[in-house]
């Protein structure tokens, strides 16, 4: 769709005692679950290939100012606090209408066409900037954090207008409303594996509704999401990760597609047991409420130092209105050659 040249991260660092400051284009990662972005609310996402890109390409860096404070040996633990300000927001890249992974809104009723009128272009004003604070504390192996983040919604939602002339149509425009998030993370390494959990409460998240009588086709709802994961490394450098997640919308509108309570799980397996240079990898993300899932499987081979070749397959399955099922006809097999330096 386009030729792109971009600087992934371009920033300047300044240190002063217990303080570190970073100014410029940078990654800000507050959540690190596998395949599910929950506490990772700051980073915009490149979704032109859905969620199947490598994480180093999937996250879009933000143009931000960041201050961090470190204090060791505080009440027997280590404190890390940070504050961020994002004067120029980045938003999820979803491609263009008609692209393979363009996230179409709910279809209109019979007799109406779908028309996409482009995207709202929020100004880079102070009122549209993003900001947040986060504090984490490490003690006795328990790594816990709390955070607050407020910004224009990076994901965006499709605002709808119904027109009847010259022909009946639903006209969609992608908009970005302000959403506030309160979240927490916890991690602890036990003998039986690494335990991780994240929770996020989002206030005013916009959702598309199928109700024709709604003026703009959007409702704003509060949603609580959480995920619990377990990971362990076995012999042969084999990594197994299992996760369970849920999203609860207590005042869920009956005309939005997600149910009041949505549940799912992920399975991730990676191993070098066959050969130290051959690395099979599998990620399965599945809904427990409907037959909606994504399967990624690939084999990486480091045939020379710094040279990788990858053979993989991505499979989406589910109903047309499902998060993964909307891409049911987009299954693919791919080959990749990469040189790292």
Approximately what portion of the residues adopt beta-strand conformation? over 45%
Order of helices and strands: EEEEHEEEEEEEEEEEEEEEEE
Number of helices: 1
Compute the gyration radius: what is it? 22 Å
Largest sheet entry = 15 strands, antiparallel
Sheet with the most strands: spatial strand order: 1-2-6-7-9-10-13-14-15-16-17-18-19-20-21
Average of pLDDT: 92
How far do the termini sit from each other? Answer: 27 Å
Low-confidence stretches: none
Secondary structure category: mainly beta
Helix content: under 10%
Instruction: Give me the count of strands.
Output: 21
Shape: globular
For this entry, give a set of tags.
3-stranded mixed beta sheet, mainly beta, 15-stranded antiparallel beta sheet, 341 residues, single chain, 1 helix, globular
Helix-strand layout with pairing:
Blueprint: E1 10-16, E2 19-26, E3 44-45, E4 48-51, H1 55-58, E5 59-60, E6 62-74, E7 77-88, E8 113-119, E9 130-139, E10 142-152, E11 157-163, E12 169-175, E13 178-190, E14 193-208, E15 218-234, E16 238-248, E17 261-270, E18 278-287, E19 293-304, E20 307-317, E21 332-339
Parallel strand pairs: 8-12
Antiparallel strand pairs: 1-2, 2-6, 3-5, 6-7, 7-9, 9-10, 10-13, 11-12, 13-14, 14-15, 15-16, 16-17, 17-18, 18-19, 19-20, 20-21
Describe the 3D structure:
It is a single chain. The chain is mostly beta strands and 341 residues long. It is globular, with a radius of gyration of 22 Å. The protein contains one helix and 21 strands. It has one helix spanning 55-58; strands at residues 10-16, 19-26, 44-45, 48-51, 59-60, 62-74, 77-88, 113-119, 130-139, 142-152, 157-163, 169-175, 178-190, 193-208, 218-234, 238-248, 261-270, 278-287, 293-304, 307-317, 332-339.
